[in-house]
Here is the input.
Amino acid sequence: MAIETCLQEKVDFVLISGDLFNTAVPGIESLQMAVKQIKRLKDAGIPVYYIAGSHDFSPSGKTMLDVIEHAGLATNVARGEELRDNRIKLHFTVDEKTGAKITGMIGKKGGLETSYYYQLAKEHLEAEEGYKIFLFHSALAELKPKELEQMDAMAVSMMPAGFDYYAGGHVHVVDRADVGAHKNIVYPGPIFPNNFSEIEKLRHGSFVMVEDKEIRHVPLIVNPAVCITIDANNKTPAEVEAIIQRELLQHNVTDAIVTIRVGGCLKQGKPGDIRWNDIIQSLYSRHVYFVMKNTNALTTKELEAIQVEEANVEKVEETLLQQHSGQFKLTGNDVELTQKLMHSLSTEKHEGERIADFENRLISELDKILN
Here is the structure.
């Protein structure tokens, strides 16, 4: 959808600020789809300029981004050289049609790219004349939202000043800001939300169009999002079910992604007593596209608080099972069986073992445990 819009609006070029892929060596299906779409841009005479992000960067240099560049489909603008004083001098890539001068810095996991910024020779970048664009893949301390306060971030001042546009990646927020001599710092948001909370917050993906210095966020609505939050405090599971159903009836859920977040402390019953299958089936009968639920903050008064002081996982599991056995009417045999099942289901695939062989081995173990 993003590339189709770019083609329709006949853009001069496209910028990708990292994480085109989720890994340096993506699956064939992802690669096929990306190459097919980027080739549409090449066939239309629209260049693609990119940097590697924290997901598709590879310290070994073995990344599919290089294959795409060698195929002539895109250009890596994070290029430069190491000076004698160990500083990094970035080079500009000049877009032939517009004369825009583009450069950027790669992203690495855990914000480790910050060390490169300490070594960056900024003076020649800042002295360069013309329309300049800087691609970066980092969280910025001045622009970091409250929910990401634990994320590693660097100061805006670490980037070269005086550029006309700063194309940001890595942080999945929709934002545009000016910070001192750094104008037009833009985060376009993900082209599709990455998890439950992002669907709740963003509702859809987006990207950015820039025309005559006008910055425009373009929504990418693949499916509408219907997001509801339910307070289950001092309610029964049946009351929670009724509230959820009543709330959902107020929305058109046809072809929608529905998220249901339930939190609070039930006055009786357990979270598992909520008949989620009935709720979800009723949604699918209304032609919903997909349903997600989140009950991480849902608790009950019926579960006793327990303390565990054990030092290893096996002892913690044993203690939890013993202390909860009374509440769930478990016998000694039930506790022993549960421990055996947990141990067997934690089995990992052996090095070089085929998936089918691993599954057969696991099923065989479970058959013996369950007699």
